[in-house]
Fold each of these.
Amino acid sequence: MVTIEAGAVAPGLDVQLPDAQGEPRVMADALASGPVLVGIYKCSCQASKTMFPFLERLHQQYQGQLSVFGVSQDSPNVTRSFARRLGLTFPILVEGPDYPVSNAFSIAATPTVYLIRPDGTVAFTTMGFFKGPVNELGDAVAAELGEDPKPLVTDADAGVPVFVPG
């Protein structure tokens, strides 16, 4: 169960966090350009390792229309390694030991993913890794952007389990 439901105002987006290279970023700044997808995760979490390549697909499909951010609960070194291993090209922010974004969203498990509309409200949310909700996330992104939905999980993902515990 996610604690911030669709329709609620997304908290914690105005927090300034360093990205994995140490550059300060504020996710709320990206809302001026369109929807924002936020994935809060732990690098050691198998469900996060399974989910994040799908977030990268969304980033690649909708570059210029959708801003994607990972929010890592790990150190910058571990975070950079995670991004490199998975081939992630979207910005990864590092929370630090106080976990300001995770706490603002009151997440219960990782990964927790939020699609946030430009007005700051949550359009869609999912937690953990289930193939069904991953496709629903892709459909929600397409709907927010006024695009025809495309399956996010494809036949090429036959080896990806239906469910991965976090």
Note: The mean pLDDT is 96.
Amino acid sequence: MYEQKTKPSDDSVIEFIEQVDQPRKKEDAYRLLDLFTETTGREAVMWGPSIIGFGKYHYKYASGHEGDAPLVGFSPRKSKISLYVTAENVSKRDEQLSRLGKHTSGKSCIYINKLDDIDPDVLKEMILSTIGFLEKTYPDGIE
């Protein structure tokens, strides 16, 4: 049986951020912690060893695969900061990304070098639209 690797833990978010080696990245992590907390109204929780997540939803795919994931989150990784946000559709995501600032992106992850490279108001908008999309998609699985 499949066991989900990335799960919420009782590990300290502050202790995790304090272990970030690069001073600039550590400062950005604290700024992102404030931004995500303020925008979501939810407490930060460590997911796995390196993701700071906010809220939680339970997903179940048609294949039967199911699990839990944070609604939104971020991780101050060694090379770049990962932002875990998504959008209801590709055109909305593309439009938001066009206004975000300097970044690269994957399917549900955005990578930035530093927080000053992006527009925090657009990130807030993306956080809220991600939560709205997930609340609509998984109405019974949101915490």
Note: The two ends are 25 Å apart (CA to CA).
Amino acid sequence: MPKKNSSRNGIVYSTDPTFSFEESEEMIETLIPSCQSLIIKLETKHRAGKTVTAVHGFIGNPTNFSALEKKLKNHCGTGGSAKEGIILIQGDQREKIFQWLKSNGYNKTKIG
């Protein structure tokens, strides 16, 4: 059974006739590429020995985050995903991602 309105933080029902639930959607403002401090790492832990390139440190809204993930996957020509603020690209793609990010204005990017 799917959870409907899971963004209500546990509020199910109120007996107060004047109660109104106010959703607070704080849109995180995406930093411009020159202000983003991204770190590119190679990870193999908890992935059954498979190697992935992880990009950490993106600050912004989920729409821009998924757009960057898609652009990186297309540039590398591989699959990947985005979980918990980390972009995962299959394989060792550190140099390719680093060069793409530098050419697109992400100047504070480093390989860690």
Note: The helical segments are 62-76, 94-103.
